[in-house]
Design goal:
There is one protein chain. The protein contains 7 helices and 11 strands. It is an alpha/beta fold and 259 residues long. The protein folds into 2 domains: 184 residues, 3-Layer(aba) Sandwich (Rossmann fold); 47 residues. The strands form 2 sheets. Strands 3-2-1-4-5-11-10 form a 7-stranded mixed beta sheet, with helices on both faces. A 4-stranded antiparallel beta sheet has the order 6-7-8-9. A hairpin with a 4-residue loop joins strand 7 and strand 8. Helix 3 runs parallel beside helix 4 and helix 6 packs across helix 7. The radius of gyration is 18 Å and the shape is globular. InterPro entries: Methyltransf_25, SAM-dependent_MTases_sf.
Length: 259
Amino acid sequence: MSTATPNPFGIDGYSASTYGDAFADIYDEWYSDLHDNDFVEGICARLPDSPLRVLELGVGTGRLIRQWLAHRPHSSDHFIGVDSSDAMLAIARAQSFPPSVELELADFSQSLPSGPFDIIFVGYNTLFNLPNEEAIRSCFSHVASSLCPTGQFYIDAVIPRGEHAETVVETRTMRNGDIIESHSTHDPVNQRITGKFVHDAETASSITRPWSVRYFTPTQLDACAIEAGMTLVRRCADGNNTEFTSDSSRHITQYSLPL
């Protein structure tokens, strides 16, 4: 008798597009207060005025594209954003971005648009939406192959805390007033957090929105970078160059190819 292979995301029926498809319609409303504007701002502060080729992994609704264009309004950057969810991309495509912005459907652990790119970045915890270690290592390999010789790769990620497995159920009120029941299970041994939001909107029936995170420590990310042929340039606790310490709950990390 054959045994079914466990779902790599840790949730039966979950796929690369599940998160985006489940959250696209409410993403900008629910997550408008992530307080991560310093990520794109910090990247742009170090860039020359000359046109750049830029790639965002997990572009979603285009939230960080809007920030990029606001910080570089007079640039002629060629910006490509990829995402594995058609639902997310449909919202991004409705933003009326300039012709210099391209949006593509792709799983960034499997393939990337043709490079080379001056800047590749992945926003707040989006890297950890990939299902497992193999996918994250594959992503690093594709990034290294897609950077120009002086290109830079930026990651914005959180550092989950807790040494023991636990399941938490709580009720939350979102910014738009919607009430949700939040379920999450942390498996620190396998470095995975799975969960779901049971969303009872006033204007709709109950909707279940599942999510899965396979997180890596900064040290593990550095090992992936080295394996892919990249080196660590800097790591800060935020986009304002705050020193990263063992107590930091977030990090912004920059990698490059060896000079």
